[in-house]
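$ run holo --ligand "adenosine-5'-triphosphate" --emit tokens
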Amino acid sequence: MTHNTPEPGAILRAVSAGYARHTVLHEVTAEIPGGAVTAVVGANGSGKSTVLGVLAGIVRPAEGAVRLPRDTRPALVVQQNAVPALLPITVRETVTMGRWAIRGPWRRLRGHDRQVIESCLARLGISDLADHRLSELSGGQRQRALLAQALAQQTSLLLLDEPTASLDAPTRESISRAIDHARKAGTTVVHATHDLDEALSADHCLLLRHGRILSQGPPRNVLTAETLRRAWGAPVLP
Ligand SMILES: Nc1ncnc2c1ncn2[C@@H]1O[C@H](COP(=O)(O)OP(=O)(O)OP(=O)(O)O)[C@@H](O)[C@H]1O
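-- output --
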């Protein structure tokens, strides 16, 4: 008998992690489905970005383990307002830096690299902004440039921290289309979001509360009135 279950995109096993002496995630165990979109949902400070940091290898677990498929080089897209707006580089240079993950920094790019860069610019609708500096862009345009940079890495694990927060409808739409395109190409996408409609349109959902998994599974099963009330309810008194 053959099994067609896809390989998981990532596995967290009893991961506890945080910053200095502040433990944020407590024994988080989760399986992120491969080639699918997972939404990470929870109140402010519940640990969504920290989950992405752990998956990206930026935040090291104090306990537990993270398993990624062999040769996975995750690409993490932070919110555009976390990136210095005055970086003196153009949009094309920003996206080109995504290829360094493959070629090595400052290496000479090949024709194929240039094709990937141009197609990522086009996919996010920012080809006409390619020669503009990041500092000249609006927040939404900058967010698209950062996503295009991540797509240029042609990663199998794309991690997005609130990619559509505070963006207008057309920009959200272009980012959603790019995420959908990545999923169709077999990329595992994990995104933190406060937007419940966005979370409901994902394939899988992790709901966090105070750094612990409150529920995980198909979004409609996870995001019920009861779990949402518990996730956003008053903190539990000691
Ligand atoms: N670099 C850091 N150094 C120290 N503490 C941090 C750092 N980043 C986050 N924290 C703390 O970790 C906790 C969880 O933060 P995290 O950003 O993971 O939550 P979040 O669910 O993504 O929040 P939000 O919805 O507000 O973006 C918070 O108490 C936060 O103050």
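-- notes --
DSSP finds eight helices and nine strands in the chain.
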